[in-house]
## 1
Amino acid sequence: MNEDELLKGEKVEKILSPHPLSFMRFQSLSLFLIIWGIVAGWLINFSEWNNLFSDNEWLTIGVWGLVLLFAGIIASLITVRWSIFFLYLIVFAGGIALMLSAGWLDTYGIFIPFYTVSISIIGFLMVEAYRRSHKYIISNQRITFKGGIVTKRERTLRYDKITDINAKQGIIGQIFGFGTITPISQSGFGLGSDKSFAGGGVQLGEKKIKLFGLFGGGKEVQTPRARSYYELHGVYPYKEIKKIVEEMVQGNVITPYQQEQVAFQKEQVDIQKQMRDLLKMQSESKMDQEEGDSSEEEKES
Amino acid sequence: MEASPIDIVIFAPLAPILGVILFWFIQLVIIESEKFLLSKIRPKHEPFCKFTNFLGILFQTVCHALGFTVTKSGISDFYISVDYGRVAPKKEKKGIFEWISNAFLFIGPFFIPALLLLICLYFLMNGGFEIATPSQLLELRYTFGEQITTFGASLLAFSNSFFTFLINIDLLHPAHFGFLLLMIFLGMGMRPSYIGKEKHERVDMLYDLKNIGTLILYKPIYPIILFVMAYIFFYISFWLGQNWYVALFAILGWLSIISIVSIVIADMILLLIRTTDEIPGKWKVFPYTIMPVSYVLARILFFYIPTDFTKPASILILILSTIIVTYVLLKRKSNRFKTERDIKQLKKKSKGEKDE
């Protein structure tokens, strides 16, 4: 954080970045590609079933793509993110397009594993670049969240605006000591919702009259969730950072007792002010009286 | 030779039980070495130790949950973290059900991970799962001696196939490589006790034995019932002329062998970690790099010069090159293996450099 970005009296406590393993959900997509690339290479070239794939490029491409897309569907269903499926679809389509355009269809035994592993390496590099774009600055007045590779995003949150702190630590986080802290603001920033929907259809009649009905139901649950550049994502050391943030929030939040104390002190100050004014008035009138007495004495003399 | 009825009725069923107990005891002793090595590397490899702890706790918790499921107690709460695991039953069952679920908790972690590996081995290994039939000496059948011989023969046949598989393991075969990785990981978690940051209480082999002892002594009637059931099972096998009794215990013996080998391999890895910790700087990565490089180079070499022992020779080259590289690095980069004369020479050299 530059000096000119700091507010008056602001002091930076910590500058953080997400832990290298904190984006494991993205890294695991690349990890799968590496494993599948190696297994596919072995299966096509060295395994006892390689006869099946020799001189049969479309079967090989089909098996390779099928596994890729099936993994994409499974991952999408688990994480409720269809972008994973489309990502793998792009990898698959890109591979076919490259093979056809460059005329590498004959070298599918080498191309498929190399292409898959190369894509996964690119994936790893992209995740790393994305991770490195994150920066969290904890100062004595606020938390500043920064992130984004192309579009730079920033969120500033004052401690007195934080109503709730959500903290989570997965198994990898527990092992390596990192975790995610999501501060929820008064406006509800930092909250997301999980939706589930169940639906069904029924068709009645066969030839002329057809009846079709659809029924379903949905549920929505509010849950603390934010983009990685709007929360303290995968910060290390988790426990220490959590304590710092909680102490900062605690230090900036006025409790009812403290509010009473402030009101009482204000009252005291008012009374003291009144007393000061009274004393001032009293002393002024005394001084006037003394001045009046002395002038009378002077006249008499 | 006539077999005495007392031998058949009383002693013969004991033979495989004693065999399993012996192997299980060996397993406990080897687990101790693993715990020792883990506690030694803990200060420098906290995440790694946490990971092995997690594996241990995971197995323990899963075994406990399995115990509650088997006893139909149900599971109301299942919590697991890197240093703590908790399973609560839906219905608090007492008596034999409680005893069985506790038995799963204390004994399960020794056998369940090995069972996973045994399932994998079934698909990877060529044979070795045959149960040896009682010998041709009919008069000796179902005696203590014959039972222990049959048990031993079954273990020998399995061990033979298992070690042949391990020696010939192809690290360029994804399934074989995956199995080795799984074996190392499970080997590191195949212990029922948690290795903590601070030693709150003594957690060792005696602690495990004490737990199991308490379990047995808590309600001695249950182990006696299990014993009686084992004897009945033996008599049924004897009556039907089948070898089911030995087969059951032979499987437990196989599990123990798998566990022992897994823990020994995990110990070797831990020993390598501990040794490389003494090498300063980035040089400590070198022994780990040399492992895949030497293996791949050996396989390429044997591809052009074919031999009958390509895979075992490649593994031997991997092991030897790792040992040699580690030794050389230790000798050159640390004070380990240095003689008094070497140390004096080093001191002179550094003094000379300072004077200059």
## 2
Amino acid sequence: MISGINTHRISAADPFKQFDVEFSRPSLRASQVSPILEGAMPLDGLENLEASEGPTFGEVLKNAVQSVESEKAKAESIALDFATGKPVDIHTMMIQVAKADVMMQVTSAVVSKSATSLNQLLQTQV
Amino acid sequence: MSTLANVMEISASAMAANRFWLERISNNLANANTTRGPNGEPYRREVPIFAEVLKREVMGEEIPGGVEATGVVKDQTPFPRIYNPGHPHADAQGFVSMPNVNVITEMVDMITAARTYEANITVSTSAKSMMSKAIEIGR
């Protein structure tokens, strides 16, 4: 079964582990699609799909999340230093927070784009 | 991360430099009437020195590093002498050496520091809004 993203199975500890498993599963590879297509019409270049070694959806998401994670951790530690009275410039804190905010927005945009394209891929008529 | 984040780093360095400047100005104003320092002399006005941070080269591209306050120099203009024989720090002729701090100059410097700080916040804000706008591509 080609399933979408099982949101109820996403654990809090590693919310993107699920994506990794689901997206990297070679369920939509050309080897499985082509037997159906063979009788109808030969599609040039479809076999090359299998050979392409790009990052999986899961890897893309994981990288995006990891970079946000590091920015967020920096922002958090600076905010903590500020709250505990350590000499932290307000602008340093605010800029780090702004960076983490933008990175979060970028990730959520990438995630929703990836999810949209995956859904579109799954709706392909064969 | 993108180079727009570097813009924010540069603005942050400028904000830190202006914070440093304001710190010196506040010290100058606080000691505008200090006739004795730890060295036995009246207070000398402090002026910060700013230097451009060395550019980094990342993948064949020069990335500016912003500004840095490298230190403080003491203003060497002579101390103004005021006739005040009753003052404990008056010399044999009855003159007291006052700090070479001009309050008006300090106020002008303070406005400059505050406005420069604001300008850098504006730069940082536009860098952020540019990043936010870039996210909207293809929405």
